Amino acid sequence: MSEESNEEKTFTQSQLDEVVKERLARERSKYADYEELAEKAKAYDDAKEADASELQKATTRADKAEAELKAYEEKEKQSAMVKKVMEENSVDAKYASLLTATDEDGLNEQAKLLAEKFAESVPSDTGKQASVGSDPSAAFAHELFGGK
Question: How far is CA 113 from CA 26, 53, 86, 98, 110, in A?
Answer without folding.
Answer: 97, 54, 12, 11, 5
